[in-house]
């Protein structure tokens, strides 16, 4: 039962991810008086890409072929560590928060290599930008995990969530609110949303993620797109379940699980709404302003850590 | 309010105070810095209210009200008027980039916590962490003063130092006598006005309020 539920969680994330993407797209379209895509359009797009043939550069080496699988696989593996609708995950163990960060980093690393592999100018540009940004985002994410881990005395995502859920709400809100701010900024940065990267454009000056996947087509592109959507949902799930961990059951009864599923959908909708709202109301930052933005996340995480270190663990 | 809530609340507002301080230095535009200062002062007022409630010192409530009126409403308005009058470029220009300044601020925070943790015989009447935060605010005000090029933001640094001293006052001794508090508040207000006039004069003399130009005064 545990196994089924854990696998179901990962499948849920993978299946649900395009829908979240659709939600933000639709929200943006409505705000601009456009109709926006139908709900199933995002899934049709993926299916279409999976069916299409691929055009691959003659100079591409095995890295180019491996990257989509590594990226997708790494993201799915990270998804297996996240508690979604019940307090447990398939691969949850002590310290999985660190592995979570580095599985995502592994996918990114391969993507960067693959973008360099074909030797196009855009690929190199996208790679250099991606590394530039991720070198700032990654320490901030780790530091946020450490600060939450310091409060909950564990470094497993499942453990963190259980401890926070058992704590009284005001303490959770007060002691991890700064880490929440940090993870929110990182969620925007990692999923390539607007103040950092614009997912809807292929403009040379602005693209980061899009520049890296420019050489891909067909099945590989579908895997990368899907993986990217899953990554976005992973961060939203982190926001929703780590910082608002209430109402998630630890038993296997059908009713609480279904309720928890609805609650999860609601929380994700709210989180996606926040991301969409930011996307609608802010302009994209100039590339060299982005480090300032990410530095804010880093400082928030550091402050959250420092605050607990100095005043004791929630005295 | 139950007594169990107050430490959490105080911690929360202390942290928010720090975030507001960082906002002053991370803000891309002068008006955003001023707004961050307004938020900082407002949080200061909230903390004052908490101290007043926890320690049953009613005259602090008057100080808090004064803080809200003067520092979150009047002074930011004076600043925005001044920015319009001076017609300065709205971007904050500093000598170092934002991430570097933020890291220095965090370092300052460490220093102030370290310095205050060594102090013996220090018996604050209220939460001890605020002594460190107050000292940090003073340091931070100095950092703001030395790191930015515009005279406008230097005034902001001075006001921050005043905020830090105010916080130190309420945590160490439940605030100074009301008369002194009133005097200080009006001093600050007058100082802002005078510095506004100064800046107009500086602008008249140098056609800008970039303090780099002031070095021309040296013989």
Summed over residues and divided by their number, the pLDDT of chain B gives a mean of 82
- Helix % of chain A is over 70%
Distance between the termini of chain A: 39 Å
Biggest interface, chains and residue tallies = A-B, 25 and 25 residues
Shape of chain A: globular
Whole-angstrom Rg of chain A:
19 Å
The major β-sheet of chain A equals: none
Structural class of chain B: mainly alpha
Describe the structure.
The complex is a heterodimer of chains A (315) and B (219). Chain A has 315 residues and is mostly helical. Chain A has one domain (2-311). In chain A, 71% of the residues lie in helices and 0% in strands. Chain A is built from eleven helices and no strands. The longest helix of chain A is centred in the middle third of the chain and has 32 residues, at 121-152. The relative contact order of chain A is 0.16. The model of chain A has no long low-confidence stretch (mean pLDDT 88). Chain B starts with a helix and ends in a 13-residue tail after the last helix. Chain B is globular. Chain B contains seven helices and no strands. The mean pLDDT of chain B is 82. Chain B has 219 residues and is mostly helical. Chain B has helices spanning 5-26, 30-55, 59-86, 98-117, 129-147, 151-173, 178-206. Helix content of chain B is 76%, strand content 0%. Chain B has one domain (5-217). Chain A binds chain B through residues 170-171, 173-175, 177-178, 181, 289, 291-292, 295-296, 298-300, 302-304, 306-307, 310-311, 314-315, and chain B through 5, 7-9, 11-12, 14-15, 18-19, 22, 26, 28, 97-99, 102-103, 105-106, 109-110, 113, 129, 132.
Would you spell out the secondary-structure blueprint of this structure?
The complex is a heterodimer of chains A (315) and B (219).
Chain A: H1 2-31, H2 41-51, H3 62-79, H4 96-117, H5 121-152, H6 157-166, H7 169-190, H8 209-212, H9 218-243, H10 254-281, H11 290-311
Helix pairs in contact in A: 1-9, 1-10, 2-9, 3-4, 3-9, 4-5, 5-7, 5-11, 7-9, 7-11, 9-10
Chain B: H1 5-26, H2 30-55, H3 59-86, H4 98-117, H5 129-147, H6 151-173, H7 178-206
Helix pairs in contact in B: 1-2, 1-5, 2-3, 2-6, 3-7, 4-5, 5-6, 6-7
